[in-house]
């Protein structure tokens, strides 16, 4: 996971002991998912005073492991910050996790957290808050999966995020799967080959059965590993790859328009693939693309700092 | 599984004992897959003298069960025919099974068969031979999965059959999955609703999360159960359904053309969905559509009868 420079939270390298009686405003941000979790602790002045990384934290597939890894990472961040446990116990925390789909998932994690106040949400909220630094604008988050969001006046609307089988249009898994479907059609002569399809087929020893075997077992992340082939080929003008990236860009534009996006609003393309769609957006959208102001972890910290605003 | 009238093999209702010394030309046809298996026994005059149905026979997922169920069905058909075991032991048999993907799968089944001569193949060959009664023509087999084939002068070419994840275009699983992807986009306002998408969404209590839950767990067969909604809506002129059926028909036509199909050749649309594409084919293809002359089981018997031709 890329760690973007914090937009509001400054990393402080001196780690002194902070006494618990000073700590009513200690903030904890947590970002997690199937590949790992990250914890950042900030003081009342929004200095980041401790961070830690931990193991996978997917509340859907491995809930107990998620609990264990999050707790371990919190403790590592506490030690990194030089805080006593009492400081953690009085902290406010915001937790964004991939795979939180309902209150039951959120509760399962929330009930073991050691904080005075904590909120557990799907990581879409922390991603958007981080990318826009809590301001107005739109986000198309395109990694292994995908979703599109727009924030306006403190309210955020979301579209997408329906997973590999029925959604996640424009995502890495979507590109990878679409590529392999196309390569099989080309191998059979039903569709014409391009450089991309020929080179992809060669990776499987020119044997569509090998693609079939891969495809039947592959996880979305494994399909997503093929997406860079599509991006690179599209940038070189490969017609098949270009059509796939345009299809993905069309989805992003349709979703943004559905959310009421206006052409003067900032647009963040996040995730490993997001920025690569800039080239394939119509100019009025492409010119609004800006770098994300922060990561999902930054977003979690910002949301934690706002918990006090409306207790 | 539909059982079409045999084109060459006549069912004989009298079941006398056939002595083993007369039985050098006893023929056995077997058709099987994940939902069950069927066995037919014919005498030298191509009268069907015994049949039986058995349990699931998928050599990929449940190989030992496939062996057991096929052997039990053979024995039931033997008893139905009033044959002694020695007659079976000297028979020639052709076995078409869904899920045979390589020689290892075929060998695993073949080595337990009690026949003098036996061949185990994927059921595509028996389906095509049955539908065309061993003659020239093309077959688009569209059920839960799909494939397209063309026979000319005793040679058959095949396209498709690459499974739910990367292929099976036009199939029931493909239609069902595409429908649900579309319904979620409509529910989000990204694409316009049609009657079909509105009614499908209502089946899930107007909750795309329910579709997400279904879609994440559904088997291809479960997706395929939605295909009749698409067919019915397309026949009523629903624009979304019509577009989906046209996409499927386009795939069928492209595959047929790739196989060298000529507009004067017979075209069989088999499987539960095949015939429903007739309406959505261009006229030059639609007018060539004919009823299949027989089932995969008939095809297996015909192929068994030909085994003697080239020993």
From TrEMBL, chains A, B:
Keywords of the record: Kinase, Transferase
Residue ranges constituting the ATPase BadF/BadG/BcrA/BcrD type domain according to the UniProt record: 28-276
TM spans (from-to): none
Gene3D superfamilies, per the entry: 3.30.420.40
Lineage: Bacteria, Pseudomonadati, Pseudomonadota, Alphaproteobacteria, Rhodobacterales
InterPro entries: ATPase_BadF (IPR002731), ATPase_NBD (IPR043129), Euk-type_GlcNAc_Kinase (IPR052519)
Alphabetized GO MF terms: kinase activity
Keyword Kinase: yes
Protein name: N-acetylglucosamine kinase
